[in-house]
Structures are given as C-alpha cells and as structure tokens.
Amino acid sequence: MIRSMSSALSGMRNSQTMLDVVGNNIANVSTVGFKSSTAIFSDVLTQTLQGASAPTATAGGSSAAQIGLGARLAGTMQSFTQGAIQSTGRNTDVAIQGDGFFVVDGAAGQMFTRSGALTLDANGNLTTAEGNLVQGWQGDVSGNVNTNADPGPVEIRVGDLLSPKQTTMVDLGGNLSAAAAVGYSTTLTLTGYDTQGNSIPINVSFTKTAANAWTASATYGPTATAVTLTDAALTFNANGELTAPVDRDINIAGGQIPGFTGAISLALGGASSPGRLTQFAGTTTAGIKNQDGGSAGTLQAFTINQQGVITGNYSNGRSRTIGQLAIAVFTNPTGLERVGGAWTKSPNSGEPEIGTAGSGGRGLLAWGTLEGSNVDLAEEFTRLIVAQRGFQGNARVITTADEVLQEVVNLKR
C-alpha cells in the first residue's frame, strides 16, 4: 500500500510537470519564433519479487515477477517544426524558412534565436528586441563581404554617406541604320561623373563615312570641347555585325576631361550579347545602356534578400552591399538549452555551423515577415486534459490505498 502511494505520488508530480510544460507552451502561443516542448516520462526502478528461471527437462521456465515503483521525468523534447510565416511589412523583420538560427551576442555570450523581430539601436547596430547584437559580416567601402571571416555585429547607419565614383565604364548598344547615307550622324549624350561627383555631359557621335564604316567622336561640357578617342573607326560586315575594333571597345584616355583621372571605356557589347551595337536595316536606335559612376549619396533604405544580404539604396540612385546575416545550424538542435528567449549550445547539441542562408542545409530568409509560434492549441489542450486526468487518476490511487490502509488498521478492533 505504501508502495502504491509512492508510485501514485510520482505520477502526480509528473502530471504537474506536464501541466507546467503545457502551460508554458500556451503562454507562448503568440511569441515570435517560439518552439513548443513536450514532457517525456519513463518508469523508475522496478522491484523484483521473483526472478526468472530457465526451463528444465521436467519443468517449464518462469518469468520474473516485478512491480514498478512509479515514473520520472526523462526530459523535455523541443519541437523545431516551422511556425507560420506572417507578413509585417517592417524592413527589419526577417523570418527563417527552414532550418537555422540567427546568431546573436548577448549576456550569456553567443546565443541563437529564431525570432527575427530585429531593430536598429542608436548606433545603427542591428539588434534583437532584447537588445542582443545580431551577428553577420560587414561589407567594406566597395560592398565586398568576406563570409569566411568570424561574424561580428552588423551596422546599418541610415544617412550613411556613399562616396562619389568616377565614371569609368559606359555600355553602348543598339542599331546604326544600314540604310543611312554617307555623312549621316547620330549623337548620344551621357552624364559622366568626375572624382568629386560633379556631373559633366559627354556627347558621343557616330558618323557614317562609307558603306559599313562609321567614325566615332566625342566632346564634353557646355562648350563641346573635343576629346581624342582610341579605336574610333568602326566597321561592320555584310551581316551587320561589328568587326572593328576587335576588342569592341572605344576609350577616352584619362586626363582629357578635367576631374577625370582615369580613362572612360565605351563598350560596344559582346559579340553575341542582345544589346550589342549592330548595323542592320531599319531605324537607328543606338543609345546608352548602362554606366557606372555617380555623385555622393546618403543611405535612404535597405533590403534583405533570401541569402541574408543587406543592400543599401542611396539617394543618388546607386546601391551597395552593407553586410550579410549569419545563420547557424546544429547537428542536434533539440539539445540546445533555452536562455532568456534564445538558445545556447550544450554538450549534446554539437558545435554551431555558421554560414550564409541557403547553404549547408540552412534555410532561406523572408524579408518583412516573422515566424510565429509553432504551438498547436488543439494539441496542447488535449495534453492538458491528459495531464488533468492523469493527476486525478493518481490522486484516486492514493485515496484508495489510504482506504485499504484504514481497513488494515481497523483489523485490530
């Protein structure tokens, strides 16, 4: 009787623990990135009243007679199933679709979280809602990111200055009409930028000099000051394809335009590129396809792509990579230990494998969204009923054992 009361008491304790776990799950049904847990129980020591015996020539074997001594908490198992992705529209919210954790630097050192409700602090550092610094790789002044380096804080300074860039490359393309008469000329105007970011108009003209032959010339500024071009003679074959210059490039040598320290390359397009310069029948459509260079600009906004690359958009129309978020995966994520709304590694989780989203089994990122809690209320309330009935059943065992014990005491009367 005492044994049954002890076993029932352990069952009541386990039911209470199950209630605690279920209560915590339900309490976090709205917590961003929360992962639910399940209480796992196992039986404890078993008392052997009679050992097992092997069969003999004249008698059969017998099994052991054992009585269990209750149950115990074996552990809690975390579920890392995907939570629902919810759109928020905030440019600092990011959700992980698939496996992985954001890497943050907090009070407990390096920690990991699924909550992508990020924000910027007064210094421009990307942080979690708790103020932990989000880890990743910062881009350099040219927008290059070294993901092989150790991750560190990611800084996004709204209003950050992007230095001016001198125009060095201009892509030209389109068609020069094969039906144009000798002496026909067409002029393209581009806006070049010097080393200080000052804009200077540059005019490039193509004049037909003979059948399948054109000459390029260029001027700059409001006074149309002429500059010398290298490989200024253009020739086309009977199919309308450019044959000279062979490198399909026209250059304005450096030093000819004030403020330009380097040459400006006027590229005519690859031999098979759709936007190459051609001489086909029809109208003249030659134009400027693209150019580098620009004035100074300030950061106006930023975006985060699926690989966690943070791209800044500047007031001068240019963009630059600011940094990239780091994502960690574990061999055994269920072995992680919860610490203050996040997780830390444990001896049973394995070491974090930190890299970029979309690689090495890491999930992709969804910008402007958050991952909701993966708590299933229907399942939790079912467990709640099981825990309640389990507690009641064990309590009834104690009551019954007490009544039997009372009858034994009454035998003395």
Judged by helices, strands and strand pairing, the structural class is: mainly beta
Radius of gyration (CA) equals 37 Å
The overall average pLDDT, rounded, is: 92
Number of domains: 3
Task: Note the total helix count.
Answer: 2
Question: What's the count of strands?
Answer: 34
Judging from the principal axes of the Cα atoms, what is the shape?
A: elongated
Strand content: 35-45%
Q: What's the N-to-C terminus distance?
A: 20 Å
User: Would you identify the regions where 5 or more consecutive residues have pLDDT less than 50?
Assistant: none
Q: How much helical structure, as a percent, in the residues?
A: 10-25%
Largest sheet: 10 strands, antiparallel
Protein model, in words:
- With 413 residues, the chain is mainly beta.
- The protein has 3 domains: 2-50 and 65-80 and 374-410, no CATH class; 85-162 and 299-371, no CATH class; 169-291, Tick-borne Encephalitis virus Glycoprotein, domain 1 (Sandwich), CATH 2.60.98.
- 15% of the residues lie in helices and 39% in strands.
- It is built from 2 helices and 34 strands.
- The strands form 9 sheets. Strands 7, 8, 11, 12, 13, 26, 27, 28, 29 and 32 form a 10-stranded antiparallel sheet that branches.
- Helix 1 (2-27) runs antiparallel to helix 2 (377-410).
- The longest helix is centred in the last third of the chain and has 34 residues, at 377-410.
- It is elongated and about 135 Å long.
